[in-house]
C-alpha cells in the first residue's frame, strides 16, 4: 500500500502543474483538487483534515477562487515528516522513470506534451530575432521563459531527463539576462539544437505511452547537457578576458627621409617621342614640408 504522505505529495504536485497549464476553474483543476481532499483525509491528522475542509470550500467557490492561496498553505505543511532513511544516491534519469511518472495520470501527461511542444515552437523565431538584436532584453526573456516553464512542469511530473536538459539551457539564459554571459553564435546554435532534442524527447515519450517502440535519444540528450555545462564554464572567462596590450606608440614620429634625385644634365640630342603616359596611382598627398622641399629642388 502506498504511503499516504507520499501520495499526498504526488497529488499536490499534479495539482500545481495543472494550475500552470489549465484555465482557471476548469474541470481538470476541480478533479485534481478533489484528489487532494481524498489524499488529505487518508493522512488523517487534524491539520490534514483542516486542509481538506479548506479544499472543499474552494471547490464550492466560483472558478475555484482561493485555490492558489490554499495550495500555498497546504503544500509546505502537513504531518510530521518521516524519519529519513539512508538510501543510495539516485542514478541518472531514465526513460522508464519518465514513463512511470506519466502513466500515473494520462490526462495530465497529454496536457504536458501539448503545452511543452507549443512552448518549444515559439523559440526558434524569437531566437532568430534575438540573434539579430542581441541586446533586446524582452526577446531574451521570451526565449528564457519556455525553458523555465518546461523545467518546472517536467520536474513536478518527475520527468528527470527533460528537466535536466531544460535546466542547463535555462541556467545559461539566466546568466545572460543578468548580464554575466554574452550569447554568441555557438550559444544560439546550441539553443536551437536543444529545442530539437527536447521536442524529440517529448514526442518519443508520447509514442512510448501509446505502445510504440522508442528511439534511443539518451546520447543526444547527454551530449547537449555536457555542451551547455561546458559553455557556461568557459563563457565567463572568455567574456572577462582583457584584451592583449598594444605596443606603446612613441610621442615623436620617426622623420620620413625622401631622397632627392640628382639633376639630369641637359644635352642637344633630339628628344625622343613621348611614350604613352604611365597609369595613374593612388597616392597619399605629400605633407606641406615635403612639398616645399620638392619645389626647392626643381631646376
Tell me the strand percentage band.
under 5%
Mean pLDDT: 74
Helix content: 55-70%
The structure class reads mainly alpha
Give the SSE string: HHHHHHHHHHHH
Major sheet characteristics: none
Q: Low-confidence segments, ≥5 residues, pLDDT <50? A: 77-89, 236-262, 264-299
- Gross geometry: globular
Our count of helices gives 12
Description:
The chain is mainly α and 299 residues long. It contains twelve helices and no strands. Helix 2 (27-43) runs antiparallel to helix 3, helix 6 packs antiparallel against helix 8 (137-157) and helix 6 (106-121) packs antiparallel against helix 10 (185-209). The longest helix is centred in the middle third of the chain and has 25 residues, at 185-209. The protein is globular and about 55 Å long. The termini are far apart.
Mind sketching the topology for me?
Layout: H1 4-21, H2 27-43, H3 46-60, H4 67-74, H5 95-103, H6 106-121, H7 123-132, H8 137-157, H9 160-177, H10 185-209, H11 218-240, H12 288-296
In short:
The protein has twelve helices and no strands. It has helices spanning 4-21, 27-43, 46-60, 67-74, 95-103, 106-121, 123-132, 137-157, 160-177, 185-209, 218-240, 288-296.
